[in-house]
């Protein structure tokens, strides 16, 4: 038996190889963005079949720890961003807290008749107009999410493209002096469609996290409905729970 693997433990070999690879990544022997040894090299190193190695590597690819480049090899992925589920924060604040630089690529800034579901969620009348703002949210030059924001026009009559290039929350709170009080968020798993994949720089059908947030100002006035698509290979959501 290869000394790198333990035989008297009820842990499958592929699992032990996964742990070994994760440890090497933690110890920075395998660095982010660098190629890991090939399946052939690993199967020789561990003296196991290539199938076993492939299973370990595939599991780590599925977990977002590694990624494959067709015809080249397998590389170490960046660590996922851990996003707490508590606390009503903005993208700009989240990135700042992590020491990352945030920016946005504005894809659309329109005033439209609210789609039915948005109209209901924002308690608008039939004629209610909303801004429909589509932004790619970028952290340190990498696309993290695509966000479509709907906000009642009458609440924010002076909103401009310039403002939404920056932080909407900052504008609402600091420039308009309105308090954002709470939000409800729904998170669902999905596969990226062609457009999302292109904007997020991932392959079509890759897993993404779809988040819908409806936020309120004081006195429970709804002010935004936001549909966001986050890269599932870059994000994980963390929550503490009490019993
Ligand atoms: C996050 C939320 C959105 C919110 C946005 C505001 O991305 N998912 O619902 O609208 O933050 O961000 P900013 O203030 O940076 O524009």
TrEMBL record:
Cross-referenced Pfam families: GntR, UTRA
Superkingdom of the organism of origin: Bacteria
Keyword terms of this UniProt record: DNA-binding, Transcription, Transcription regulation
Record has Ribosomal protein as a keyword: no
Keyword Transcription: yes
GO molecular function, one term: DNA binding
InterPro entries, alphabetized: Bact_HTH_transcr_reg, Chorismate_lyase_/UTRA_dom_sf, Tscrpt_reg_HTH_GntR, UTRA, WH-like_DNA-bd_sf, WH_DNA-bd_sf
GO process annotations (BP): negative regulation of DNA-templated transcription
Ranges of residues in domain HTH gntR-type: 11-79
Coiled-coil annotated spans: none
Annotated protein name in UniProt: GntR family transcriptional regulator
Protein species of origin: Halobacillus aidingensis
